[in-house]
Design brief:
The complex is a heterodimer of chains A (about 300) and B (about 270).
Chain A: H1 2-43, H2 45-48, H3 51-56, E1 60-61, E2 68-69, H4 72-103, H5 106-121, H6 124-143, H7 151-175, H8 179-187, H9 192-203, H10 205-220, H11 224-229, H12 247-254, H13 263-294
Antiparallel strand pairs in A: 1-2
Chain B: H1 2-6, H2 11-17, E1 26-37, E2 40-51, E3 55-59, H3 66-73, E4 83-91, E5 94-95, H4 102-108, E6 109-112, H5 123-133, H6 139-152, H7 156-159, H8 172-184, E7 190-194, H9 202-215, E8 220-224, H10 228-234, E9 237-242, E10 245-251, H11 252-257, H12 262-268
Parallel strand pairs in B: 3-8, 3-9, 6-7, 7-8
Antiparallel strand pairs in B: 1-2, 1-4, 4-5, 9-10
Helix pairs in contact in B: 5-6, 5-8, 6-8, 8-9
Chain lengths: ~300, ~270
Amino acid sequence: MSRSDNTVKKFFEKIIEKIILLNGFACILFVILIFFFLAKDGLALFKVSSPIQFFFGLLWNPLAEPPQYGIVPLLLGSIMVTLGAIAISVPLGLACAIFIGEIAPRWMREILKAGVELLAAIPSIVIGFIGMTMLAPFVKNLFGLPTGLTALTGSIALAFMAIPTIVSIMEDAITAVPRTYKEGSLALGATHWQTIYRVTIPAASSGIVASIMLGIGRVIGETMAVMMITGNASVIPHSFLQPVRTMTATIAAEMGETVIGSDHYFALFAVGLVLFAITFVINFFADMALHQQKK
Amino acid sequence: MTLLANKECPVSEKTGEMKPVPDRANKITVEDVSILFGEVRALNHVSFSVKSNEILSVIGPANSGKTSFLRAMNRMNDLDIACRMTGSIRLNGQDIQKEMDAEDVRRKVTMVFALPLPLPMSIFDNVAYGPRRHGIKNKRKLAEIVEKSLKAAFLWDEVKDRLSSSGMKLSGGQQQRLCIARTLAVEPEVILYDEPCSGLDPISTAKVEDAMFELKKRYTQILVTNNVKQAARVGDRTAFFLTGELVEIGETGKIFTSPRDQRTQDYITGRFG
């Protein structure tokens, strides 16, 4: 009796193990498939247009005759908006994380953490909406511009999207610094701030780097908000106060108008492929930094 | 080396060799100190004094309040918001709670922890950390301080060729001596040790104890230890704590040969604890 019970048990055990294994492999398989289809359609562009024209072309104009598929203005647009957002969100996020992790009393820490997480829960379209109706007119009046829809406006809005990611990972890294390091420093007569600046932050540095990387990943892939507030002009930007167009916004705006299988269609896939490569590299480095932290 | 030999000796023989402690000025005066963690009383109306240049051993079983007492001496208890202290601790006659800044107290009364944990930086930077924080920028001066401190902690010869390698790569005993060197670099007046040898092997322990003997010339030292034999070896005087009370304090020789209190007798002979 008990023997046959055992066989049944073992059988189910085996089945469940296999199902879990299958699920694990499925995740990887999906990523590989997505990459495969992206690469297949993206690389098809190079049958009609040379890679040099694509990677170094200074003009993105699919409606011109002949059509121009130069990624440079889009790439610069994305990079500018991202750098701007990081320049705003990193100092703000670092200060916020230090305050939450090291300075705030416990009750305030809980409230702030909940607040930061809530910030992450705001849909990006809502941030885009606020940026369009409130931030853009503000930027326009502040600098006396013809339009408020600029790279700067996009950077500010995206900074708010990156902050929750940055703060929560930085805060984890900061609170993970062993108490003994801090006590060792304090016991030598260092002040609280000296301890944070000289011991806590250097010890948490790899986590801090990872949080910045993931923040960049979050910003560069963002679509809706940027499309609404960066002005969508696919020109080479010369300053933060000009409209720009990012790679994501280009794909979102133009995909609906293209004929499947056309050159334009393949060009958009190629842009997607570049985006994928960028975020892949960023995530890879973030992962490396996080592993460094664990050691 | 004498220390190593002493390890096997019974306590009475060791104490026979002890010189009587001459009367010295009081370095630290502890008056009616009680410490509470929330509702839990860690230390109960304790009063005594510590003399200049002596080593005071503090012994007692777990939960006797000896670590809380030690952390009160350099206001490390301030870091725990649940901790409250009444009574007064005076360093050179100054009340450390009311008349001094916490940083100032911690610079003069520094602490060596149970687990030797160097800061995550090079050996040189570990030792130079304290002086740098207190405003010493001059490179030659820093190098001098580092060398002097490492020599005083008996570590210089072992690390002088690799000052720029990480302090965390040293062995346990070396790390603890690095922590002592780091403490000496801020030129304290009092050094507190919180079970400094609990994680070390006997030879490393002997080296740390050697360093303590040498440091007597310049510093007042308080050693909290779970190792009764170590207390007997190192301490000029010994204090016995039990459940937050100071049961007995006196010259080490007397405490270990003819304690006044039965509980002290029981503890040092290993009947409990």
